[in-house]
Amino acid sequence: MDTFIDKLAQKFSAQDMIRANLAAEAKETKKLREKMESYESLLQEMRQINLKNMESAERVNQLLQESEHVDKEFLQEMFAKTDEAIHTENVKVYRNVQAAVSNALEEQTKLLIEEQQKQIEKQHELIAEQGRISKKRGAFLKAMVVLIFLGVAADITLHVLGILGIF
Known about the structure:
Elements: H1 2-66, H2 72-164
């Protein structure tokens, strides 16, 4: 009965550890999703800004085509500079977001690896503990078998002596 209770207690503790690990992993996954959502919103904002810039560029082109009184070369030069500046800023924002995502991903990967290593170590400890318990039980069972064998041998000897009339 004690062994059954011990096994039941071990199962509950192992199940509790598994549940706790799953809860921690779910929490980390939720954090990653939230970060990814924020990065996605930043990228969406970049797209909107880019669309606005493209609309502005189209308006400038329309003004260039409609207006004969404006110096076309000056406007084209300004447009080129504006386009270059916008492109430079977009590249900076993209690289910043990319770096942030990459760093966050590396951090989360390291944390998950560490957590898995801890779980593996705990499982090795549980297996070692179960091995020690099995050895103790094995020694107890051997002793019981020897005692039962001696008792049966004594009983057979008494019966044989009783049959022979010696005892």
